[in-house]
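Homework help thread (please don't just give me the answer)

Our assignment gives two proteins as sequence + C-alpha cell strings and asks us to describe the second one. The first is just a warm-up. Here they are:
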Amino acid sequence: MTNHLGPGQTLAAGHELHAPTRPVTLVMQADGDLVLLKAGAERLWSSGTAGKGATHAEMRPGGN
C-alpha cells in the first residue's frame, strides 16, 4: 500500500496509511471512524463517524 491517497482513491475500512517521515498512521476503522494515531496508539484526531455506516474515506479532487 502507498502512503498517500490521490484524487478519487479510497481508504477502505480495516486499512491504514503510514506517514513515511513521522510516527503517525491514518486508520479507517471497521466501525466507520477515520482516526489519526501517533505511534500506533495515541489518538490525535477522529472524524467522529463511528457507528454511522461509513465504509471508506475518499480523497476528493480538491484535496478534501
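The one we have to describe:
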Amino acid sequence: MKEIIAVVRINKVSATKKALVQVGAAGFTALKVMGRGRLVEDKAVIAERRATLLALAQKDDYDTEKLITEFLDGTRLFPRRMFTVLAHDEDVSKIVKAIIEANRTDYNVGDGKIFVLSVLDAVRVRTKESGDAAI
C-alpha cells in the first residue's frame, strides 16, 4: 500500500481529477497549499517566463512586476494544490503516469512534484476494514 502525494499547478486541478478518475484511483484528497520548488538557474528560461507573465498581466503596474519577480526569484510562496492518493502497490505506476501526463507543460519550470511513500496501515471508519481492503 502506498501514498502518492502530488503538488500541481492550480490550473491543472480539473485535469488531475479527471486523470485520477480515468485511471481508477479509489479516491483522493485535494488541499490548497502554498510553496515553491527548486529555483531555475537558467537565466534564459527565467527571462522568457518573466516576459510571458508580464504580457499576461497586461498592466504597467509595479505591484504586478514585483509579484512576478518574487515568484521567479523564489522569495515568494505561491498557491498550488496537493493531491493525496492511497493506492495498491500495483496501481502506483499508472497513477503516477496519469498525474504526469495531466500536469506536464512546455514551460520548463513549475510543473509540480510527486512523492510516493509506503503506508503501514489504513482503516475504513465505517466498516473497520483495514489494510488493502480499506482502500
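TA reply:
I won't write it for you, but here's a hint about the kind of observation we're looking for: The mean pLDDT is 88.
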